[in-house]
Amino acid sequence: MKHGKLFAVVLLAALLAAAPLFLNAYQVDVLNSIGLYGLLALGLNLILGEAGLFNMGHAAFYAVGAYTAAILNTRYQIPILWTLPLSGLTAGLFALVVARPVVHLRGDYLLIVTIGVGEIVRIALVNDIFGMTGGANGIFGISRPQLFGIVIRRPWEFFYLIWGCVALTIFLFLRLKQSRFGRALNYLREDEVAAEGSGINTAYYKLAAFGLGAAWAGMAGTLFAAKMTIISPESFNFWESVVLFMIVILGGAGNIAGVLLAAFLVIGLPELFREFASARMLVFGLVMVVMMVFRPRGLLPARGGRFSPVTLARGRG
Amino acid sequence: MEEFFQQLTNGLAVGGIYALIALGYTMVYGVLKLINFAHGDLFTYGAYLGLTLLTSLALTDRLGFALGVLVLVLMVMGLVAVLGAILERAAYRPLRESPRLSAVVSALGASIFLQNTLMLIYGARFQVYPDNILPATTLHLFGLYLPLMRVLIVLASVAMMAALYLFIQKTRIGTAIRAAAIDQGAARLMGIDVNRVILLVFLMGPALGGAAGLMVGLYYGQINFTMGWVYGMKAFTAAILGGIGNIPGAMVGGLLLGVIEALGAAYLSIAWKDAIAFLVLILILIVRPTGLLGERVADKI
Amino acid sequence: MKQHLLALVAALGLAVGGVTAQAADTVKIGLMAPLTGSWASEGQGMKKIVELLAEQQNAKGGVLGKRIEVVTEDDGGDPRTASLAAQRLTTRDVVAVVGTYGSSVTEASQAIYDEVGLPQIANGSTAIRLTEKGFKHFFRTAPRDDEQGRMAARTIDKLGFKKIAILHDNTSYAKGLADEANALLKSQGAEVVFFDALTPGERDYTAILTKLKGANPDVVLFTGYYPEAGLLLRQKKDMNWKTPFLGGDATNNVDLVKIAGKEAAEGFYFLSPPQPRDLDTPDAAAFLADYQKKYNELPPSIWAMLAGDGFRVIVAGIAGAQSTDGDKIAEYLHQDLKDYPGLSGPISFDAKGDREGEVYRVYQVDAEGNFVLLKL
Q: Is residue A246 part of a domain?
């Protein structure tokens, strides 16, 4: 990493960490929203960006995680943050089960299947499946998270929780990217046939990407449930999947910094455009088109693998 | 049994509209491999433009019902086609050499833009077609209630689809479109102007979508600026169901989806209707990974 | 490029953080409404009504000698956007908030306002549990679903229907009302022959109507919203099916008849808080005339009018408490505001913040498409 770049990253991180000191509750909450979508988008980035699997139903996994957390918390009084690994696991397993029979489909067919899965999950939630999801009302009365004896309730407290998770995710996913696993996914994305020819078990890697990405969405779901204290099916509609899809592609599929930047723009811009009142989504749509036209490969395109022999040796593991 | 046939006709009427819109998706996809997510909004524009032209020009008063509606359909198709061409120029052409998904995001942005433009022009409230234009006759045949307009809608959709199919299969331009869909590079070498083919596809698809929007407006009466999202999604599903890129596939997929929905609602559950439709789609794709009529494409090595 | 992107992010941060100018001689009242999204027509109506009322109040000298300024935020009709809209309003020096329409949307904002002590007066949110949480600053000018459920059961009984089909649309509001009515109808011995949900936002409901017809009910209770109700009526007529429909209060919208057509809408019953013009308050008549004059249309629905009542109640609260302090306004509204002359009738709040008194009436659409108050 070049010194200049390192400096910029450190500066940005410090600026972000200090943000609650000079921003008001609303602005901090916008950052919270951005962080949450950042987490979701980083998970989707594994599936869509790194492995190149068209997934436009990410909200389904997000919903499974959020509902797992909410049900465990409201029915069995398990502290909400403790449900984090479990909701990740549930969402990941759900993704594996769903993806298993369809993961071999070609791009656009997979796209509609994931859209379908997203809709089926939402409809199931609305229809109060298993009598546990509360139908259209959703689940309410989810307790506030506690960390080291502190109850997290105010926007700036959530800010550190959410962005702490984002930081951890960045760290983990950067490591993953450098690993044999990450390179196999990229190979898959660039040329599936060649990847298979070089002995990569494509089905295994595709499923692994799906499971891991979905698990991240599940955990983000827990954070969402904890923050809102009420969840309902409409928070997990098709539009959420579309937004996440746009974030990953706009950011530059496969580039972590790009995806985060895009989360800032896609979630932040509609807030910024509040001054336009009824016209704010119009301006937003226009900006999306213009950004794509001027940065067709995304804001920060993923660069093809440049790996030093050292990292390669480490990844061989 | 009567109820079954009634539901079947219900499904076919809805499916006919899906099929018309699905054609727009499938044609664009065939040539450009692009999912035009703004196509549903072009359908909405058809409905709104139809309403404006109908009320401002009073066509049916001046020309009588049949001729008035015919002129109206042609005008709407023309206008929406031009809109489609503009869309292609502004939002898709700059991205033609880019990764495919970039164009999808551009399409989504365009969809948001188009939808909100309509909301700002016409207002957010539902717009309503005047209800005295169409004959409100209902045929009562074999114990089935068939409103005349529904029958006309199905007939009109089938006629348009047949015309399109013949055009694509029998004319020189149609052959050029098919060639460009198979291999753009080779088509170019054969002297086909691929840019013109793409333009043509972006005129024809939206024209059909616009016609579908007008029909929905005329028959159902109520239109609003978000309706394209629902219809667009259904039509896209239909196109995939039939095998995207395949024109007869879109027709079959559309009609089939309408019937699945109607029968699913009738015999399983209304509330789960859309979930049932998606489940059937997924099952079909598991058995036939490229849809009902989609061709198996060998991977290039 | 990287520099540009950093600059963009910085600009974004600054703009979101833009300092809003403060003026001490105004009282700011917040309005949270769905200006975009599926319920944009309601939200835009709410905004027009509240802005006109503020204008009129300012012409009369404002409140506490200060000018009223309305600060509107878009909640997009969805809970996540609503929580951001609420956070934003709390930072914009408003003294109280009017809104919003949907129950789940309101719910996402309740705790945020309550935590900072801002009185909130919801206008379209009828879900029962909103006022069961003990929030001291939450009020609503809308009635509750259980009241409407009782009214639905009673009306069906009075009209003499025995076999009832219930259709909802799986929104939290419509499902709640359907469940409420279902339980009451069964307990009073009526037979519920059909209970299911349609998918809102579609155009063709003939499949559902065919199935409903097969169940052969005396009456169909539809608890969903007017766009679907209009289409159901229209397509019902095309099927030559004569069974009457009874709608919930979300079908009370002038567009219902337009969508269905006069002929198809004739005979449709619905429950609703009274229409403004069915009240003999001169206020309501005068206001509607002013509204018509300014915007050249009628307000979209009673729900938007109830936002207007929310605004007026807040103004009354500020004037009555002689203060812009949230706690004092809330206390005044709970205890001292009795039978305030609202546009939709007299307004008093109980200890939970619910509106007191029976507000539901039964209406029927006549051959001309007018909504006629029925005396049952």
A: no
Scanning every residue of chain B, which has its alpha carbon at the shortest distance from the alpha carbon of C231? Answer: B220
Per-residue pLDDT at B20 exceeds 80: yes
Evaluate whether A273 touches A267 at the Cβ level (below 8 Å): no
Q: In terms of CA atoms, which chain C residue is nearest residue A271?
A: C16
Read off the pLDDT band of B171 (50, 70, 90). very high
Structure confidence at residue B183 (pLDDT): 84
Structure tokens at A63: 């919903």
Token pair in block for residue A280: 């704010």
- What's the structural domain count of chain B? 1
State ipTM.
0.83
Question: B272: domain CATH number?
Answer: 1.10.3470
B300 assigned to some structural domain? no
Which residues lie below 8 Å from residue B103, measured CB to CB, with a gap of 6+?
A292, B32, B34, B92, B95, B96
* Domain-located, residue A297: no
Contact criterion met (CB < 8 Å) for A264 and C72: no
Contacts of B150 in chain C (CB under 8 A): 238
Distance CA(B280)–CA(C34), nearest Å, equals 35
Average model confidence (pLDDT) across chain A: 86
Specify the pLDDT at position C21.
42
Say if CB C193 and CB C162 are below 8 A apart. no
Supply the pLDDT for residue C24: 63
- Rounded to 5 degrees, φ, ψ at C253 are -155, 140
pLDDT of residue C22: 45
* Cβ neighbours of B109 in A, within 8 Å: 246, 284-289, 291-292
- Residue B236 Cα, gap to closest chain C Cα (Å): 16
Q: Measure in Å the smallest separation between the Cα of A112 and chain B Cα atoms.
A: 7
With H, G, I as helix, E, B as strand and everything else as coil, classify residue B224.
coil
Q: What's the pLDDT at B300?
A: 45
pLDDT in tens, C215-237: 999 999 999 998 899 999 988 98
Cβ C213 vs Cβ C203: under 8 Å: no
Percent of chain C surpassing pLDDT 70 = 91
Tally of structural domains, chain A? 1
Q: Do C40 and A299 touch (CB under 8 A)?
A: no
Going by C-alpha positions, the residue among A78, A58, C178, C260 that lies closest to residue B222 is C260
Smallest CA–CA separation between C13 and chain B, in Å?
A: 23
Determine the distance in angstroms separating the CA of A208 from the nearest CA of chain C, rounded to an integer: 30
pLDDT of residue A157: 86
Whether residues A108 and B114 touch (CB distance < 8 A) is answered with no
Q: Two tokens at A199?
A: 């002995």
Chains touching A, CB cut-off 8 Å, 3+ pairs: B, C
Query: What is the residue type of B90?
Result: A
Q: Do C2 and A8 touch (CB under 8 A)?
A: yes
Mean pLDDT across chain B: 87
Summarize pLDDT for C332-362 with one digit per residue, the tens: 999 999 989 888 888 999 999 999 877 788 9
Q: Which domain holds residue B269?
A: 2-287
Q: How distant is the Cα of A312 from the closest Cα of chain B, in angstroms? A: 27
Q: Which residue of B has its CA nearest to C255?
A: B126
Judge whether residue A3 has pLDDT over 80.
no
pLDDT of C19 higher than 50: no
Q: Cβ of B10 and C210 within 8 Å?
A: yes
Closest residue in C to B266 (Cα–Cα): C211
A277 touching C (Cβ < 8 Å): yes
Structural domains in chain C, CATH included, are 24-143+281-347 (3.40.50.2300), 146-272 (3.40.50.2300)
Structure confidence at residue A317 as a pLDDT band (50, 70, 90): very low
- CB < 8 Å to A25, chain C: 87, 90-91
Alpha-carbon distance values, A272 to A27, A268, A281, B254, C94 (Å): 10, 6, 11, 40, 20
Tens-digit pLDDT profile for residues A24-68: 888 888 899 999 999 999 999 999 988 888 999 999 999 999 999
Q: What is the DSSP letter of C275?
A: P
